[in-house]
Predict the structure.
Amino acid sequence: MAKFNSQAEAEAAGVYISKVKSFVKREGRLTKAQGRALEEFWPTKGIEYQNEPLDLAAVFGRDAPVVVEIGFGMGKSLVTMAHEAPELNFIGIEVHRPGVGACLADAGELGVENLRVMEHDAVEVLKNMIPDASLHRLQLFFPDPWHKKRHHKRRIVQAEFAELVRTKLAVGGTFHMATDWEPYAEHMAEVMNAAEGYINTAAEGDYVPRPDYRPTTKFEVRGQKLGHGVWDLIYERTA
Ligand SMILES: C[S@@+](CC[C@H](N)C(=O)[O-])C[C@H]1O[C@@H](n2cnc3c(N)ncnc32)[C@H](O)[C@@H]1O
């Protein structure tokens, strides 16, 4: 990629460089199975980062509502969701390569056809590759909570991000977040309640019960046994 001397220069050239990243890239080693899955399935299920909008129907070979998930980790719940909702098209975005490999291994094993994956910063993908008003749902499950106050600026949910997500959702589309860290849930609600062009779909208060389409993760079930809470928030794009 071309090098830019400043954020302004990059933006002028149409390239978005987020100032603060929501992740620190870990150099995890690939297991043999993950490496094999990347080799076998990336050519058909992987999407390379590019600097222009995707033709979503061409990517999937059909027109269907598109769900994007940011930060799918090892991809277990994303693969289950895609398997259980064959009428939807799913794109998972994750920066952690072993996670991408693990997700492809599971998707390949189950023969899931309606899932594509990307290995890149989801903020850049949203900004540059996802067409405006094209998404049925955007999912952000258990994003890094960045517990320390001095790291709060790394939390992906911020006003600017809420606006970016809004422009990518179709009107009537939803932004679904879940977290097990209560202060982050409160932060999400604060940012989203202040964001224009959304309504909170909760019947009461800020949180909704976990919808059936979101499977629980092993990590989540273990946390619940220990008495930890989980907060789901779903906002709908209205304008
Ligand atoms: C705490 S983990 C949760 C993983 C998974 N959603 C789960 O519930 O098990 C957060 C994940 O988000 C990924 N991540 C953070 N920021 C990201 C970004 N900007 N683009 C893509 N992935 C990101 C991290 O690599 C990490 O795997």
